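Model: Ready when you are.
Researcher: Fold this.
Model:
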Amino acid sequence: MAKPRILLTRAWPEAVEARLARDYDAVLNREDTAMGTAEIGAALAEFDAVCPTVSDRLPAEIFTGGHRARILGNFGVGVNHIAVDAARTAGIEVTNTPGVLTDCTADLALTLMLMLARRAGEGEREVRAGRWSGWRPTHMIGARLSGKTLGIVGMGRIGLATARRAQAGFGMRVVYYNRSPVPAESLAGLDAARLDTVDQVMTAADVVSLHVPGGAGTAGLIDAERLALLGPEGFLVNTARGDVVDEAALVAALEAGAIAGAGLDVYADEPRVPEALTRRDDVVLLPHLGSATRETREAMGHMVADTLDAVFAGRDVPNRVG
């Protein structure tokens, strides 16, 4: 019996690729070059499974023809790059990789907070450029996180993990907004106050960390009005999805001194980053590193492989989206 034919749209961790090549008729992207939307659409008619990543774009129009594919095994949690309803209508399952990247993304949120508060990115650039003239009492004064208020927008797995790290490590007070109530057992041991609106979180917090899914429901959630509520000493951190923040409004707020700085790991039009952000010292910019540890990326890939195994063995589909 022929093995199911699968396509990986980008290069995956070596251990995962070896497993998939062993168990499937797998086409790997050895060059790790981005595939175009039309190319992915054509692949749906040629492969039993297509495994995209957050860097791909799968709009509704590619699901209108006849398809061989039974599943989109997405490498990542977020699926706002996939027209999920259209895929389902075409009879294609969409799955993701929840849970395994929680700790690494929370670690990165704290990294961005620390880099902002202590001006670490700015200082590192100064040293590398040979501009540092030595220690002095007034040089590159930042802020401390200890005792400050952290506002979490989106108190899911990653938001909770971020809050726990901030409170245990820095004694930060935590306030949060979540669309639905957070189970009491998830909050056990965490001193956190639920506020009724995003606006209340923006007003109460010294640092706001975003952990909501991307897509139509959250696009532009952090706009000019909400940035103004954060205030001139407030920091914004985004490790969620780039479109959650109105980037033009963010630039304007930074230029006006309406907020103190921003730490970003995600952008609205990746990999393009607005030049107005790249030239600012009060902004920390990372290249979408939230899950970028060997352990986590391998775990994500093996989770997709486990899902494929279940689908092609006729078992229930794990990690189904929606």
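Researcher: Now this one.
Model:
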Amino acid sequence: MAVVVPRSFRLLAELEKGQKGEGAEGCTWGLERADDITLTTWTCTIFGPPGTAYENRIYNLTIICGEQYPDRPPTVRFNTQINISPVDRHGAVNGLSTLQNWNRNYTMETILENLRREMVSPQNRRLPQPPEGTTY
């Protein structure tokens, strides 16, 4: 029988990995407020991959890990405007397969890695982008 890690332990492990910079290439994450004892609201960054329309850009996101995380996916939203297929016109990430087919073993890092992968995918890599620094 598998051991189910409680939400707070899981999020503390994710926080530690994010703070140590041991995460996915081109991605960072951490708590939005250091005093958030519920470990709910996270601020994340994706650095645009080279050779794409996102190159030399920094994208800021907010991830909300509700009470059911990691059994249910978090809410993910870009704060920096981006033109990419899994993101709607308000910045909400709705079309990412990682969120649609959520698995308790996925993490915030998994989400950020998959979003960065979307940036280099053939359907997204050359999409025209909003002016740099534009927010929702």
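Researcher: Key takeaway?
Model: Strands lie at 27-31, 41-47, 58-64, 75-78.
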